Amino acid sequence: MPAWFAAVIGGYLLGSIPVAVLVARAHGFDPREVGDRNPGFWNMKEQLGWRAAAPVFAGDALKGTLAALVGLWAGALWAGGGWGPVYAAVAAAMAGHAWPVFARMGGGRSILTFAGGFAVICWPAFLLGVAVLAIVGLLTRSFARGARAGVFGLPLLQLIFTSVEQVAATGALMCLIGLRFGQAALAERRR
């Protein structure tokens, strides 16, 4: 039980760090009030350009990576290993990014936090996903299309390296992303 508690609390607190809000404040605005109102990398890239938004990209991904490492540590320390605490920590980081306690519960869609955590969960599939992103991005001349192909291809790529149960757990993590997109669509409809 301590492993799961440490993984969830540590993951949620890491995920709650509002990287986009902090970077945007340094540039004099709140990302929740401009563009698509999503405090994440894509909105920041649209507002500031790639270079100024790069810390958001790195920070949001790093939150997931650090959360997964907290889960690994907690699992090794108290639970004798296993992937359960790692998935719990990444899910908590994604929830923290989506509903951050440090930013009035107004967060992003958790894609980069998921990707950063997945890099620990299954690094060979992660690297293949990056290759898919690059190839599709170059062929279509669209980073967005490449990113979609890379992220949504991760469970299929993971199946090469891990058990079906782990792939199902990855699918459950991705459902959090779907939930956030659904919430964003409803909020947009209400405006």
TrEMBL record:
<dbReference type="GO" id="GO:0004366">
    <property type="term" value="F:glycerol-3-phosphate O-acyltransferase activity"/>
</dbReference>
<keyword id="KW-0472">Membrane</keyword>
<keyword id="KW-0594">Phospholipid biosynthesis</keyword>
<keyword id="KW-0443">Lipid metabolism</keyword>
<keyword id="KW-1208">Phospholipid metabolism</keyword>
<keyword id="KW-1003">Cell membrane</keyword>
<keyword id="KW-0812">Transmembrane</keyword>
<keyword id="KW-0808">Transferase</keyword>
<dbReference type="Pfam" id="PF02660">
    <property type="entry name" value="G3P_acyltransf"/>
</dbReference>
<feature type="transmembrane region" description="Helical">
    <location>
        <begin position="114"/>
        <end position="139"/>
    </location>
</feature>
<feature type="transmembrane region" description="Helical">
    <location>
        <begin position="82"/>
        <end position="102"/>
    </location>
</feature>
<keyword id="KW-0012">Acyltransferase</keyword>
<feature type="transmembrane region" description="Helical">
    <location>
        <begin position="6"/>
        <end position="27"/>
    </location>
</feature>
<dbReference type="GO" id="GO:0008654">
    <property type="term" value="P:phospholipid biosynthetic process"/>
</dbReference>
<dbReference type="InterPro" id="IPR003811">
    <property type="entry name" value="G3P_acylTferase_PlsY"/>
</dbReference>
<dbReference type="GO" id="GO:0005886">
    <property type="term" value="C:plasma membrane"/>
</dbReference>
<feature type="transmembrane region" description="Helical">
    <location>
        <begin position="159"/>
        <end position="181"/>
    </location>
</feature>
<dbReference type="GO" id="GO:0043772">
    <property type="term" value="F:acyl-phosphate glycerol-3-phosphate acyltransferase activity"/>
</dbReference>
<protein>
    <submittedName>
        <fullName>Glycerol-3-phosphate acyltransferase PlsY</fullName>
        <ecNumber>2.3.1.15</ecNumber>
    </submittedName>
</protein>
<keyword id="KW-1133">Transmembrane helix</keyword>
<keyword id="KW-0444">Lipid biosynthesis</keyword>
